[in-house]
Amino acid sequence: MTAVTAPSDALRRLLDLLASGASTEQLAHVVVAARAEGALGPADLAALASAGELALRIRETLAEHRRREAQLTALFETASELAGLSDPDTVLRSIVRRARALLGVDVSYLSLNNEAEGKTYIRVSDGSVSAEFQQIVLGMGEGLGGLVAQTARPYATSDYFHDDRFKHTRHIDSGVEDEGLTAILGVPLAIGPKVLGVLFASDRSAREFSADEVALLSSLADHAAIALDSANLLDQTRRAVAELNEANATMERAEDAHDRLTDLVLRGGDLPDVADAVAAVLHGDLTVYDADGTLLASSSAPVALDPDALAAARAGGRAVSTSDSWVCAVQAGPELLGSLVLAGRAGLSEPDRRLFERAGVVTALLLMLRRSVVRAEDEVRGELLTDLLTAPGRNPRALLARGRRLGIDLSAPHAVLVAHADGGSRRRVASAAARHATLVGVHAEEVVLLATGDPDELARRVAADLGSATGRPVTVGAAGPASGPSAIADAHAEAARCVRALLALGRTGEGAAMAGLGFLGQLLGDRADLDAFVRQTLGPVLDYDERRGTELVATLRAYFANGSQLARTKDVLHVHVNTVVQRLERVASLLGEDWQAPDRALEIQLALRLHRLGTPRG
């Protein structure tokens, strides 16, 4: 170092060092060196000492300016970085990282308020090593952070555990101790009067946070709050746009489904078509029931209907869920028309639920349309049936023509059936009988059917099916086959007599033609076939006698003529009693073990008499 020989040399040296950014020690050494050299007088040394102190103050001022400039630069860079961020989580991480760098602290972290719960949660941190600390939840007013969140004012402490200005709690103090923090500064993240959360800077050793540091962190928090609020708004906007797009897509899907269902109805589609369409749209399995719970259609295997769920859906006017399905009531005003059951969907979103309910409306429309068509057809068919049975000879050609317009060839052979049900709706019986009939209607308080097939077999099958469908016994009499209006009218009269005979015999709920009533049918029938009756009753015995040359028929005549007594029978026949017994055992094997039951025995005796009348005496 150059020796100081004049005050000007010392001052120049101070200025050179100050200009070059020398340290405090270097500036102070100029005055110390001048004293040691002794080249300056007391007055000059005093002036030099005063100049040295001024140089030190200037240096400190310049350092402070440079520090502030660095902080402002960093703050502007932070604001610029935050302005470019759009994801809230990214914004939060950037805030705490910058806070730690700007204040040079060990740990920085940020908590966000939950207004509904009245608490603030640590969301992100930088420099933290304690899992317990990162999971701290602060109530409003608890701990330093809770106090900042509650008051919206900055708070700083150089020694957290010995500061009694805020409320200490065991779980907060435990987390702070586990992280090893001592000095903590917290400033509010606020937009106007609304506090979003708290930004913290903390050290693991005692430290006094200056007013400038508080102001710096507060400035960062202000920028961060704006950026966070903007990011939240942008995120909300994105979600709103996504929800709007989803709503538009759902609306388009619903409109498409509605158009498809409406088009099905307008094109004459039936319930199976609707079931398939709805199942395809909702990606499930759909089953359609009528008001009585009868299956109408299903897109796959039918799903059972829960009556309680249907009652709830009907009462609430909305589809309801069960453990494994959804149920929608199909209604027209207060009237229940049926129900829809959707399976294969664990849950339905609100749009899909509304779509399912809309399917119920379309189904109701289809059922109402179907009912109107059926009523119109029933009226036309009913008028034809009434004219056919009451005035068959008035204009037979017109009746045949009306039948052809309905797709019915009345000149073809038809069995005529009359169905009788005590109580209940005859319309319901007629509706259930429609699947068996070419023509069906209600005439003279009874349901009348024209069908193709064997009358006796048809009567038994229809009686069983209608009884099952209506839940009450239905008695069915049959006659025919008959061709043409007059013959059909006659067959109807015979079928009606057959029904009355079944009821008189106590055979309610059964079905039969006159031939199935045995000798009573021959007596009541218009077309008695005695040979057929004899053949039906004694056929196996007659055939046996003819093949083997036996006398089973003669034995039966003698047996019945002698009051079914074996001893008298064997005397008349001039055979041993064992022979009579053996012959009667053979009869039982041919006619059945019940051949001696009163009803069967009466039919057999009548057949024996008719057979004798038709056999020439030798």
Structure description:
The protein is an alpha+beta fold and 618 residues long. The chain has 21 helices and 16 strands. The chain has helices at residues 7-19, 24-37, 42-83, 88-103, 131-134, 143-151, 170-179, 211-266, 271-282, 307-316, 350-390, 396-405, 426-433, 455-470, 485-504, 519-524, 530-548, 552-561, 566-573, 577-591, 598-613, and strands at residues 107-114, 119-126, 137-139, 155-157, 183-191, 194-203, 285-290, 295-298, 320-321, 325-332, 335-343, 414-421, 439-443, 446-451, 474-482, 511-513. The protein has a six-stranded antiparallel β-sheet. β5 and β6 (194-203) form a beta hairpin. α8 runs parallel beside α11 and α18 packs across α19. The N and C termini lie far apart (175 Å). The mean pLDDT is 78.
Distance between the termini: 175 Å
Largest sheet features? 6 strands, antiparallel
Q: State the helical fraction.
A: 55-70%
Our estimate of the beta-strand percent is 15-25%
Any idea what the shape is?
Answer: rod-shaped
Poorly predicted residue ranges? none
Q: Class by helix and strand content?
A: alpha+beta
Counted beta strands: 16
The radius of gyration computed from the alpha-carbon positions, rounded to a whole number of angstroms, is 54 Å
Output the strand order for the largest sheet: 3-2-1-6-5-4
Mean pLDDT: 78
Number of helices: 21
